[in-house]
């Protein structure tokens, strides 16, 4: 019994030693001088001095001040011996908060700003920039991790071609023109896009051209006075007219633009003068992306699929009243092809 007690005591003692070792091994200690600390004061007097600090080089620390010079930011080298801080002459393209982050190793330091603004095709993008310093505090490299070169995006020229044949009631014709005005309005807010409109039945005519839109970006005035022609549904002939007469520089189309056609119809084509195979082949050759919208119950799904460049560019609505419900989805897909 006494021998068992000794073994148990020995086991408990070893367990205490083991636990003590677990506490000691991972510990890394350093000394703080609490009686005579070195205090570095901001040369510029801003409240953000010391936002980031790291030991770098012999007898010195790097100290950042993201609010220096009205928020431009800066980084200082502060020397332990005399307590003086000198601003490093770093030239960096930044729109502010330089020094918001800082990291140091034995041989190099990295100082960063999260705010570098880039303008591309009328849009503004926000990136970050980091400056790498060597042990001599010389600026060796600049890094922009998410920066991308501005790629020229071609402008967009779109034509809306709508059916105004005799199968459409006057009330429904007004609903369709209201829908077209809403689509036109989405082009008004896009500086790189312009739109033209044509209508068709047995005959086809332009409501307004690209040059008219460029001169007056107002949907109501551009569509003012548009009337219904009535007649038959000559869809292929109407598409050919748009390709031949409206996608032309002489009426305001831009030579480097992406070209897009939106066809709105409520019925099957009964064109006696042209056919889909011929005109769609021409559209493909000229690089025109095409959307097709069928309204009601009398249109042909097969014809819509012939007209549209891709199946996802086909839209169907049960009535002219429901056209308004597809404006957002239609315009989103139109501008996503840019």
From TrEMBL:
<protein>
    <recommendedName>
        <fullName>VWFA domain-containing protein</fullName>
    </recommendedName>
</protein>
<dbReference type="InterPro" id="IPR002035">
    <property type="entry name" value="VWF_A"/>
</dbReference>
<dbReference type="InterPro" id="IPR028994">
    <property type="entry name" value="Integrin_alpha_N"/>
</dbReference>
<dbReference type="Pfam" id="PF00092">
    <property type="entry name" value="VWA"/>
</dbReference>
<dbReference type="InterPro" id="IPR036465">
    <property type="entry name" value="vWFA_dom_sf"/>
</dbReference>
<feature type="domain" description="VWFA">
    <location>
        <begin position="157"/>
        <end position="330"/>
    </location>
</feature>
<dbReference type="InterPro" id="IPR050525">
    <property type="entry name" value="ECM_Assembly_Org"/>
</dbReference>
């Amino acid at each position: 019994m006494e021998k068992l007690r000794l073994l148990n005591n020995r086991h408990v003692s070893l367990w205490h030693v083991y636990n003590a070792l677990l506490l000691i091994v991972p510990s890394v200690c350093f000394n703080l001088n609490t009686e005579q600390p070195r205090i570095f004061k901001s040369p510029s007097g801003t409240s953000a001095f010391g936002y980031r600090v790291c030991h770098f080089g012999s007898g010195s620390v790097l100290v950042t001040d993201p609010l220096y010079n009205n928020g431009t930011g800066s980084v200082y080298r502060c020397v332990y011996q005399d307590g003086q801080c000198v601003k490093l002459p770093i030239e960096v393209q930044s729109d502010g908060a330089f020094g918001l982050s800082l990291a140091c190793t034995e041989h190099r330091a990295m100082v960063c700003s999260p705010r570098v603004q880039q303008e591309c095709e009328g849009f503004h993008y926000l990136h970050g920039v980091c400056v790498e310093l060597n042990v001599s505090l010389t600026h060796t490299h600049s890094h922009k991790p998410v920066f991308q070169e501005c790629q020229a995006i071609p402008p967009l020229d779109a034509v809306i071609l709508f059916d105004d044949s005799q199968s459409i009631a006057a009330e429904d014709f007004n609903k369709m023109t209201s829908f077209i005005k809403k689509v036109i309005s989405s082009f008004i807010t896009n500086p790189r896009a312009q739109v033209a409109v044509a209508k068709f039945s047995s005959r086809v005519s332009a409501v307004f051209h690209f040059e008219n839109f460029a001169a007056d970006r107002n949907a109501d005035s551009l569509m003012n006075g548009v009337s219904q022609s009535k007649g038959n549904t000559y869809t292929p002939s109407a598409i050919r007219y748009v390709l031949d007469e409206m996608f032309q520089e002489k009426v305001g189309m831009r030579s480097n633009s992406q070209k897009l056609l939106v066809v709105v119809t409520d019925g099957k084509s009964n064109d006696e003068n042209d056919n889909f195979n011929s005109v769609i082949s021409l559209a493909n050759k000229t690089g025109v992306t095409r959307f097709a919208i069928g309204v009601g119950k009398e249109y042909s799904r097969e014809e819509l699929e012939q007209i549209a460049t891709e199946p996802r560019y086909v839209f169907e609505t049960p009535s002219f009243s429901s056209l308004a419900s597809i404006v957002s989805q239609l315009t989103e897909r139109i501008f996503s092809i840019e």
